[in-house]
Structure formats: structure tokens, C-alpha cells
Amino acid sequence: MDGIHEMKSASEIVNLMMNKDEFSSWMDIKIENIEKGKCSLSCHIRQEMLNGFSIAHGGIAYSIADSTLAFAANSYGFQSFSIETSISHLVKVQQGDVLKSNSIEIHRGNKTAIYQIEVFNQNKIMVAIMKGTVYISKIVW
Amino acid sequence: MDGIHEMKSASEIVNLMMNKDEFSSWMDIKIENIEKGKCSLSCHIRQEMLNGFSIAHGGIAYSIADSTLAFAANSYGFQSFSIETSISHLVKVQQGDVLKSNSIEIHRGNKTAIYQIEVFNQNKIMVAIMKGTVYISKIVW
Amino acid sequence: MDGIHEMKSASEIVNLMMNKDEFSSWMDIKIENIEKGKCSLSCHIRQEMLNGFSIAHGGIAYSIADSTLAFAANSYGFQSFSIETSISHLVKVQQGDVLKSNSIEIHRGNKTAIYQIEVFNQNKIMVAIMKGTVYISKIVW
Amino acid sequence: MDGIHEMKSASEIVNLMMNKDEFSSWMDIKIENIEKGKCSLSCHIRQEMLNGFSIAHGGIAYSIADSTLAFAANSYGFQSFSIETSISHLVKVQQGDVLKSNSIEIHRGNKTAIYQIEVFNQNKIMVAIMKGTVYISKIVW
Predict the structure, then answer these.
(1) C57 in D contact zone (CB under 8 Å)
(2) Interstrand relation of D98-108 and D38-44 (parallel, antiparallel or unpaired)
(3) Chains in contact with A, where contact requires at least 3 CB pairs less than 8 Å apart
(4) CA distance D109 to chain C (A)
């Protein structure tokens, strides 16, 4: 009305991102917490997520971490895109485990930002750690 | 019979790994080529693999690359485990795209090895590149 | 004169970067080749570069690779800054070795680019491999 | 005497590593703290460490982080070797800055371990962060 663009809140943005997100829906990812620059997700490990060793495929922990990174990075209102992610798998993830992720904002500049994402199991043991770099565009959500 | 342990071939090992691999089965990953230290896979991008931007979730290209790494690293007959993977997403992956991965063995020592995994789309454009480090155990397949 | 900004050549840019570069001078880095998007350097390993194991400190191969990345990324005429680098040390580097680096441009977008830097010794054995991500600014050299 | 091998302390090991370490000596790296699995170093940025932009070469922060990783990883008494390091440079480092590093042990298994190394300047601003993976050998210091 008054020409001032109103920025969406962190929750509104993540809801927009989660809507129609078919893969997160298949994974049944739950949002535990979302605020500016910070995100926490959870996911229950099902049989369809296992590999031939009967442990979760590495792509599962990566996907949870990558979504956490995307939500944390986009939460300020500017569309942001992952450009590099480095993940270490620390402990085996098994069927029935409930994974929970947390993001830590290491650095946020004007154009790029770096987040650390930690993924824990239900026993609070860290199963994976990611260092992710994003590019921050000028496109407003 | 004669006490000599016969090493399984690269194909036999990957077939063992793919059997009961429920996530690769969900992704419908196809083995294009497998030989000692080398693997190529393909995967057709379906609607269930998309995120809220209607492009493939980053976890999809990661999963293909991670499986390629695992198969290439295990193909010599010793069980090997990914310890660190760094992936760069270069180009958007869309529904209907057919991704194809290739592994390059950068270095193989006694205990650890490093592979580069390149993922291309059907237009031979590289969509993702991974540098992966594995630990090579003494456990024979 | 005519208002058209003349872009500097890759060589001119790298000469500007090398001038007053005191650390490269200490390392005695030589430019083997420089062209748009491509760089090759060499460096002779001296006693002052060794660690307590009497092999070259990991920071030496990293520094050569990082300079190669910087020169290749800046060679188009826009100031570019490394934001993430992942390096694997493959083979021990010893006093008297002559290292030679090569850059490969994996992807170059408008805002970010990814380069792979390979470092070889005088026997053409790869001693280190880096995947580096740079941010490309609008600042003209 | 009694056939029992006495393990060296963290300090004894790092002193052995620092002795004859010519590059750390050139950098004038100081040990701030060393204990089992934990290390902190400091380094004063001199003119010889600058690049052509008159800021510290990326190899300087990397070298401090890499030494911190090496000392923390070796401190348990078994020779350990860096196999993969991923570093993000966050803030420019300038002549006269005093950098201080801290290690965090993310995970320590039997064969491999992962450390995070944070590097700060004298204003307690983080200038670089590294995720490093090491291989733990059976060789006793």
C-alpha cells in the first residue's frame, strides 16, 4: 500500500519452502525450531531410508543437514543458495533412530554466509557434521 | 575348499551392496558400469525428489554421488567407509532430468583413498562434483 | 579517453597480484602459465618449509594451491575472493622436490566459481588436490 | 625396564614435533595450550606473511590451523596424519594481527578422528574455520 516492502518472517519463508517440497514430505521432516539465522529439524529413520548394510544411506543425514542449512540461510528474507557443503559421517544411523539437526551461524556477510549443521540421534550422539557455504541473492522472499 | 580365500569381483560386491538397499531402490538407481576402482550410476529425476523450488533436493545429487563413491571404493574387495565428502552443486537439476555419475580414483593408499565423483545431466552438463575420502578396512567382502 | 574501460589481461592482473606479494616472494613461487581461467605455478621446496617430520608443512602445498586458485579466478578481470577451500594431502613432499600446480575450471557462474587445483611433484605424482570456491565481485582490476 | 611402554605426554609429543619444525619456527608459532585432544596456538602476523593485497596470504591462517590440528590429533600418543582439511576464510587478516587458534574434538574413533579448528584475531573475531580429518596410526610417539 505504502510502497514499503514488508519482509516475511522466518516461519513464513520456511513454510513457503516446505509447501510443495515433495522430498522433505517423503522424508517426513519436522520443523523443530525456526528463527532468523537458526533452524532445527527432526526426522524419523524408516526402512525405505536404509542401504544394503541396513543402516541409513549417507544421503539421508545429508538431506536433513542440507534442508537445515537452506532454511537457516533463507530465514532473513533473501533467497540464498547452497554452493558448497562438506559433511562428515561420524556414527551409523539405524532404523528407528530419530535424528535432530541444529544450525550454527559461523559467519554472515553481504554476499555469502557459512553455517555449521550438527545432526544428533535420540541419544544426543552426533552422527554427522556439515560445514555449508551459501550465496545470498538480492531476491526477496 | 583349499583354504585360499577367493576375492569377489567388483560386480559381485556391488550386487551384494545393492541387494536390500531400499533407498537406492526408491531412487531407482541403475548401475551403468562397475569395475575395480571405478563406478558409473544413473538415476531418473522424479517429482518425489523435488524441493519447494520445484528443482531436485540437494540430497538427491549427493545420494547418487555417495553411492558411486561407495561402490568404487568397495570394488577392490575390502569393506570401505566414507569418512568425509565435500560436494558442490553447480547447476539446477529438474524433473525429467537423467543424472549420470562417474568416479575418478584420485589416490588409493593402504588405509584411505580419495575419489572424485562427477554428476552430469542428460545434456552432459556437470551438475555436481564431490571429493570423497574413504577408510579402507581389512574386512573382506 | 573514450570512456570505454579497457580490461587488463590475465598476465597484467597476475603481475599486479604478485608485485608486493611478500609471502609468494618468500616461497619463491614462479608463474609457469597464466591465461583466462587457467594458471600453473611452481615452487622449489627448501629446508625452511619443512615441519618436525622433515617433510614439507601442509601449509606449503596449500599456499601454492591457494595462489593458483586466486590467479585463475582473478584472471578474467574481476576481483575474486576465495570463500571455501578443501584440500587433500596425498603424498609426502620433501626437501628438494619441485612442486607444480595446475588449475581446472569446474564451473564459472556470475557470482561464484569453482576450481580444482592439482599439485604434482617433479616425478609427476599428485601430492595434493584442492576444490576451491570463489566469490566474483564487480570490482574491475 | 619392565617392558611396559610408557606413553609420552601431550606436551612431550608436541615438543618433539616443534623441535626442528623449521616452518613453524619461521612463522614464530607459540603453543598457548596443549593437552590430550586439545591444542591452542598463537602467531603474530608479519610483513613477510602478506600477499599483494597487503593482507595475510590464505596459507598463513591455514598453516596455523593445520598445525593446531596436527598437535591435537597426535597428543594421545599415536602418530596421526591429516588426510582432508576444509577451511573457510571469513575475515581479512592484517599485519600486526595476533591470531589464536583453538581445537574442538568433534569425533575420535579408532582409525580416524575429526577436529574443528577455529582461528580468531586479537579482537576475538573468528577469521577462519577448519574441519579436519586425520588418520590415526598404530605408531607410538
Answers:
(1) yes
(2) antiparallel
(3) B, C, D
(4) 20
* Fold that domain B30-140 belongs to in CATH: Thiol Ester Dehydrase; Chain A (3.10.129)
Q: How far apart are CA C54 and CA A123, in angstroms?
A: 44
Please tell me if residue A86 touches chain D, with a CB cutoff of 8 Å: yes
Chain A residues lying within 8 Å of C131, measured CB to CB? 84
- Cβ <8 Å between C106 and B114: no
pLDDT of residue C52: 84
Q: Does the CB of B12 have a partner CB in chain A at under 8 Å? A: no
Q: Distance between CA A36 and CA A6 in Å, rounded? A: 15
Instruction: Say yes or no to pLDDT of A73 above 80.
Output: yes
Q: Is A78 on the interface with C (CB under 8 A)?
A: no
Q: Does C95 touch chain D (CB under 8 A)?
A: no
**Architecture of the structural domain at A27-140:** Roll (3.10)
Q: Which of C86, C106, C126 shows the shortest C-beta gap to B86?
A: C86
A1 pLDDT band, cuts 50/70/90, is very low
Are D107 and A90 a contacting pair at CB < 8 A? Answer: yes
Among D89, B61, D101, residue whose Cα is nearest residue C70: D89
User: Measured between CA atoms, how close is C56 to chain A, in angstroms?
Assistant: 26
Of A130, D131, B125, the residue nearest C106 (C-alpha):
B125
pLDDT in tens, A25-71: 999 999 999 999 999 999 999 999 999 889 999 999 999 999 999 99
Q: State which CATH number among 3.30.70.100, 3.30.70.260, 3.10.129.10, 3.40.640.10 fits the domain covering D10-140.
A: 3.10.129.10
d(C-alpha C95, C-alpha C45), whole Å: 5
pLDDT digits (tens, 9 = 90+) for A109-128: 999 999 999 999 999 999 99
Instruction: State yes or no: pLDDT of D66 exceeds 50.
Output: yes
Q: For residues C103 and C115, is the Cβ–Cβ distance under 8 A? A: yes
Distance CA C68, CA C42 (A): 10
ipTM for the complex?
0.94
